[in-house]
Specification:
The chain is α/β, with parallel strands linked by helices. The chain is built from nine helices and eight strands. The protein has a single domain, classed as Metal-dependent hydrolases (TIM Barrel).
Length: about 260
């Protein structure tokens, strides 16, 4: 079983990262993909993944990080991303994507202007084409805009919509662009009809699993999420599709290996 999106480089795992990996292995998770969210993590993540069996990494700039970064430095950061990808080892470009404004409390801003987000995303997509890698795509409340961007420049080497939150109709549009769809903890929530319906609409050869650890903890767990909980998400997908858990395991593992070209 492969966790296609988790953030084991986050500080939440500093106290027990090795134990988290051991629990994941014991739960049947053979591989995991850790996408960087910003430049400060690129070097350390690449080094850690290179020394950790079964760990793979992506490099990118998360749209939610943009408000904390000087807009004047976007081109420089994309050039640095190009250099980091040129060192090899990455299995994808991202996490990158679009994040619509949302109502939140506390100091802001929480979202960069959409035009800036689109420009940075297009930079990631160009680098994905250059380095012949899939794009690891984040989208929160901006599927219409993301579809427009992707239709103008389809990811030549594929991509995956992490923790897919779009509609059944949008599944069809994304599938026409050759994209994969990843499902996370919400698939296990009792009232989560939207992700379950979306999962049923995804072509069977395009569906993969993720934890998005430490976030989106699946039922019945609470608190910090971790890759060892991936079987619970697989069980949620099994129930949504009406197929055995063993078939979910073999299907999503094969799809993840094809997407990221893993041995």
């Amino acid at each position: 079983m492969i966790d296609t999106h988790c953030h084991l480089d986050k500080a939440e795992f500093d106290p027990d990262r090795d134990a988290v990996l051991l629990r994941a292995r014991a739960a049947g998770v053979s591989d995991l993909v850790v996408p960087a969210v910003g430049p400060n993590g690129w070097g350390g993540l690449a080094a850690w993944a290179g020394s950790t069996p079964g760990a793979h990494f992506g490099l990118g700039i998360h749209p939610q990080l943009l408000p904390a970064l000087d807009p004047g430095g976007d081109e420089r950061r994309l050039a640095a991303l190009d250099q980091a990808l040129s060192r090899g080892g990455a299995v994808g470009v991202g996490e990158c994507g679009l994040d619509a404004p949302t109502e939140r409390t506390g100091p802001g801003p929480y979202s960069a202007p959409m035009d800036r987000q689109v420009a940075v995303l297009r930079g990631h997509l160009a680098l994905a084409r250059k380095h012949r890698l899939p794009a690891l795509l984040h989208c929160l409340g901006a599927h219409a805009r993301l579809l427009k961007v992707l239709s103008q420049a389809p990811p030549e080497f594929g991509g995956v919509l992490h923790s897919y939150s779009g509609s059944v109709e949008e599944v069809r549009a994304y599938a026409d662009l050759g994209l994969f769809f990843s499902f996370a903890g919400p698939l296990t929530y009792e009232r989560a009809r939207r992700p379950k319906a979306a999962a049923r609409a995804v072509p069977r050869d395009r569906i993969v699993l993720e934890t998005d650890a430490p976030d989106q903890t699946p039922r019945p767990h609470r608190g910090r999420n971790e890759p060892a909980f991936l079987p619970d998400i697989a069980a949620g997908l099994s129930a949504a599709l009406g197929i055995p858990a063993s078939e979910v395991d073999s299907l999503t593992t094969a799809n993840a290996r094809a997407l990221f070209r893993l041995r």
